[in-house]
Design a protein that fits this description.
transmembrane helix, cell membrane, seven-stranded mixed beta sheet, 12 helices, elongated, 405 residues, transmembrane, five-stranded antiparallel beta sheet, single chain, membrane, alpha+beta
């Protein structure tokens, strides 16, 4: 094979334009394949986001059209009415859930004067039993006690014991024990516990590093915490429970409107939230398949054209002793060199495209593993694509070949 490389290169120089076009097509395929696979895997990882709550067992019921002056009465009616639904395990008041409506986002600071904003966080305001209903996992500190549930005179309490995520704690106090630490965000808060995870309501809204920057605040239901109710049931029952909610609301709170768009299971919220990511992944898979198909057809077409042009040359080589295997290896080696040249340009183009994506979107540097995998795929594709024309070339009898002009 090594001895064949020099004559192959000499032959390719006589067909510079065709060789260059195929190589550039392979370069484009390599660049797109690397970055498209990288983006698809990024979307897959994003969709596997750990929300920190027991999604399969939870649903939220959202009401509108009520008078806040009647909040305490409404909360009492709804808590008792929803708890009476068959198979409901618990009901609590909460302002939002992961993948649900945005609520409680605010800047926070380690400085009482808030001269510097250290992070933008989501506040989860939850009434009694909401912490347990969510299924939050405590990794440090203590569980909320009855005395921790503060009354709200505004959308956020003026002072409270709070539970923050480990990700947020590492950001605010890297390497330090966050328990007992203080921060300010329209009020004064002290960390009483650390949660393993609790995703913000809209995890992709503020960058991939802040998806877990959440704070749970135990709060008493009232005018500033009403109309949104967390239901917990067994995973196999939660959908049935949610279907019974409409009748329960019509019975216990006929003066309100049930918001069906925002009354869903958490699993449904998650599915809807990542719909664009799934659509993008499907589009990229289609682009990859189409590009690989076009590239393979281009290789097949060029190889077939060259086989037809070189029938006399093939016949002469067969007549002087070249075997079918020699002819087959010749075309495979020639294709390997063209694909390799395309891959070299493709790697440079892939990293250039990755830099553009890093500037336009929040993606990281392209790992070398994607480049190596794409190169292997294109080498294999090239060898498979050229195999048919190469076999036809190797099958030409010497006598027939030498008689053709």
């Amino acid at each position: 094979m090594i001895m064949q490389i020099r004559p192959i290169i000499t032959a390719l120089r006589r067909h510079r334009l065709a060789t260059l076009l195929i190589a550039m097509e392979i370069a484009l395929a390599c660049a797109v394949l690397c970055n498209a696979c990288f983006l698809i895997m990024g979307r897959e990882q994003r969709m596997k986001l750990n929300s920190g709550v027991d999604e399969s067992s939870l649903a939220i019921v959202q009401l509108t059209g009520f008078d806040n002056a009647m909040a305490r009465d409404l909360n009492a009616r709804m808590l008792s009415g929803l708890a009476a639904i068959d198979r409901v395990q618990s009901v609590s008041v909460i302002n939002t859930v992961p993948f649900g409506p945005q609520a409680g986002a605010n800047g926070m600071s380690l400085d009482p004067a808030m001269k510097q904003i250290n992070a933008v966080i989501d506040f989860y305001l939850g009434g009694p039993s909401s912490f347990q209903s969510l299924g939050l996992k405590l990794v440090a500190g203590r569980l909320p006690q009855a005395s921790d549930y503060v009354s709200l005179s505004n959308v956020l309490p003026s002072s409270a014991q709070v539970w923050i995520t480990r990700s947020l704690a590492d950001h605010l106090w890297p390497g330090a024990d966050p328990l007992g630490k203080e921060f300010w965000s329209g009020g004064h808060y002290r960390v009483a516990g650390v949660l393993e995870h609790l995703a913000i309501a809209q995890p992709g809204s503020r960058g991939q590093y802040s998806v877990d920057w959440s704070v749970f605040v135990p709060a008493q239901p009232g005018p500033f915490l009403t109309g949104s109710y967390l239901l917990r049931a067994r995973p196999q029952d939660i959908s049935h429970v949610l279907r019974d909610v409409r009748a329960a609301v019509a019975k216990v709170a006929p003066d309100t409107v049930l918001d069906m768009d925002d009354s869903k299971t958490i699993s449904e919220f998650r599915y809807a939230y990542f719909e664009n990511d799934r659509a993008m992944a499907r589009v990229l898979v289609g682009v990859i398949a189409a590009l690989l198909l076009v590239t393979a057809l281009g290789i097949v077409g060029l190889a077939s054209f060259w086989v037809q042009q070189r029938r006399k040359q093939i016949g002469i080589r067969r007549a002087i002793g070249a075997t079918r295997g020699d002819i087959l290896r010749y075309f495979q080696t020639e294709n390997f060199l063209i694909v390799t040249m395309g891959i070299v340009f493709g790697v440079l183009l892939a990293y250039a495209l990755n830099v553009m994506l890093m500037k336009a979107y929040e993606v990281t540097h392209l790992p070398a593993a994607y480049v190596a995998t794409s190169a292997i795929v294109l080498w294999l594709l090239g060898q498979l694509a050229v195999l048919g024309p190469a076999l036809r070339a190797a099958a030409v009898p010497p006598v027939v070949a030498t008689r053709s002009v």
